[in-house]
Predict the structure.
Amino acid sequence: MKLNLNQLKEIDENGYIILPDWFSNEEVNNLCKEMKIVFNEKTEANVVEKSSGEVRTAMGLHLRSKIFDDLTRHPKFFEPACQIRGNNLYIQQTKINVKAAFTGEVWQWHYDFATHSGEDGVPKPLALNLHVFLDEVTEFNGPLFFIPKSHKYGSAPSKLDTVTTSYPLWTVDQQTVKKLVKENGIVSARGKAGTAVIFVDNLVHGSAQNMSPMDRAIFSAILNPCKNAQTKFSRPDYKHGRDFKPIDASSNDSLK
Ligand code: SIN
Ligand code: MN
């Protein structure tokens, strides 16, 4: 499923795009069934929240599950990614980030390239983060906040935070966020289950805790041009895939 010229322009200008109704209810239901299975697996690739012990992020899903591998290569994801970054892409990372009802914790302000360069030695901010909502995401259950156009400023200064949440993250300081928001505002990425979102590697974003009674699960695939592959290998393969061959679009479009 290809993006039109206006949509491509929107990503270039704002650093993200929200695509309502990109996946069907049936596709989302199939993905949710499999989500329950992978969440119950005892593996270090399932990272839990400090306070509640609930799964916060289940990683390496294309390595663990056929349907999530198919989803990552699905034309609805893969074709837009190729339009934006060219055909030779590898799967850098796949995961589901859940913000469980009542207990889901914050993701501090950050941009993904700070981690990709700092931890993995990825040379340039060319990776794309592709999301599909597995629950409806509203203002109440911890939507992602984006600072539009923040990717245009180059990579903001960032610092590794290993303390405030259960997942170590290279975060952006408050002064920088204040300046970026003053100039560009903040948007929240909301929509029904099945909505897709695409955003670029140095777009500043974060999300607040989920104090609502509704879970919020989002699948995320990070695809990176093969010529921009990682040069440092300290993180496990569920955080940064080691297969740098260009991926093919899945021939299995049905997501069963
Ligand atoms: C992320 O930025 O990778 C996670 C944000 C979220 O799931 O809310
Ligand atoms: Mn992020």
User: Anything to note?
Assistant: The chain has one domain: 5-226. The mean pLDDT is 95. The radius of gyration is 17 Å.
